[in-house]
Structures are given as C-alpha cells and as structure tokens.
Amino acid sequence: MLKALALILAMLVGSAASAREVVKVGGYEFGPFVNLDAAGKPDGLTFALIETLNRYQDRFTFQVVLTSPNRRYKDFEDHKFDVIFFESPDWGWAEKKLPVDASQVFLDGGEQYIALAKPGRGQDYFAHLAEKRMVGILGYHYGFAGFESDPAELAKKFRMTLVNDNAASIEMILKDRGDVAVVTDSYLKRYLTSHPGTADKLLVSERLDQRYAHRALVRRDAAITVADLNRLLAAMDKDQTLARLWRDFGIKD
User: Fold this and answer.
1) What is d(CA 71, CA 247) in angstroms, rounded to the nearest whole number?
2) What residues contact 156, with CB distance under 8 A and at least 6 apart?
C-alpha cells in the first residue's frame, strides 16, 4: 500500500514538473550577474535568481542559455532565449526594434570610472575622458561615448581598449596599461572586498558613467508575459527574497 502511494505521489510530482512551461533566459558574462571561472564554468547572480524563481513558483521552469554581449541580439532573434535579466531597452534593443517588453525596474546600480591612484590625482582626473586611454568591455554601451558600442568607433574616438570582463578592466588599470576604466559598481565592490589592499591603489570616481535601472526584457510571444514576471518579482520584493539575494552578492547592504 505504501509503495503504491509513493509511486502515485512520484507520478504526480513528475507530472507537475513536466507541466511547467520552459522559459529560456539569456545570460552573458557581466559580473556579478554572470561570471566565468578559469575553467569556463558559469555562475553568478543570474543563476542564483533563476534557482530562486524555480523554487518560488510551479508554473515555469527557467533555464539559463549563455550568449555574449555582441551575440545576444542575434541569439534572441533566433529564439535561443525568451527573457534576459539585468538589461535595459536602451542597450541596443530599442534601436534594433526587437519585439521585447520591459519589466518594471527591480534593481538599480551603475558604472564608475577607476584610475590608478597617484599623488595629486583627484576627482578632476575624470573630467576630460577624451584625453584618456579608456578601457571597457567588448559589446557594452557606455554613457561617456553616447552609448556607442562599435569597437572601431570607440578605438578611434577614445583610444579605447576592449577586454572581456570587469576583472580584466581592473587589472589593466592596476598594470598601468590604460588611464581610465569603466567598471560595474556592484562588481567593483565585491572585487575590492575579495582583494584586500587594492582599494588603496585605485582612484574611484564619485560620479557614474551611467545609472542602471535593471529590468527583464521579455519576448512578446514567450510562454511567460511581462505581466507574469512583474507579479513574480513584485512578490519576491515584498517578502524580501530579492533583498536577501542582493545582500548575498554584496550589491545591497
């Protein structure tokens, strides 16, 4: 009798799991949201958010699909993913007229300038960036450049060196291989915590290159709607689920 009951329960659980709609979530290396370790294994806040979403409700199964900053638009057009978190319509999506709806803002943040700390160097060092050797990440959009992301234009106008991630940007400055780098504030905070002594070597700008208003972008014909996602994120915000995630990743106190 007990074995039969256990079998029925297992079938019910399996049936409920299989009944979930699969929602593919795009993610590209953008610390702390998606990080790749030395072996190329991904982790980060996007993965933690997806795991939390899957535990939080039983209607959808969220799965991460890796892409890249430059490739994400083409992968979206090819239906390789339906949702992307920690994005903004202003980062090329509206310009390319892609069929996405934007969720409510669920996290804010920004990008700061960093330079090597030297005697006599202060905040005025960041006033005239056109004169500096800039460092950034391939495929990103930067406020100081009018949200231009074309590598040729950035190299021409700002002598900009493009690297693969925030860690490489910071290392370029520490090795004096660039004058100013643009780094995600949440990543910089975690980096300085995990690399004691580095804070004294860097001058960090008080002003932001741009302020983030992180949203999720949802394909208009996806299994999940932007209204569905807004309701989920609002509930997770109300019961402090999101706040605990942000604290775990050192984004919010």
Assistant:
1) 30
2) none
Of the candidates 209, 120, 132, the one whose C-alpha atom is nearest the C-alpha of residue 176 is 132
Query: What is the residue type of 66?
Result: L
Q: Are strands 161-163 and 107-116 parallel, antiparallel or unpaired?
A: unpaired
Q: How many CB atoms lie within 10 A of CB 148?
A: 15
Distances (CA, A) of 228 to 15, 52, 53, 78, 117: 22, 16, 12, 23, 47
| Spatial distance between the Cα atoms of 28 and 69, rounded to a whole number of angstroms | 6
Pairwise CA distance, residues 215 & 246, whole Å: 15
pLDDT digits (tens, 9 = 90+) for 198-237: 999 999 999 999 888 899 999 999 999 999 999 999 999 9
pTM above 0.90, yes or no: no
> Which one, of 86, 60, 65, lies nearest residue 76 by Cα?
65
27/80 Cα distance (integer angstroms): 11
Q: Which amino acid is at 119?
A: P
Question: Whose CA is closest to 220, among 81, 85, 60, 101?
Answer: 101
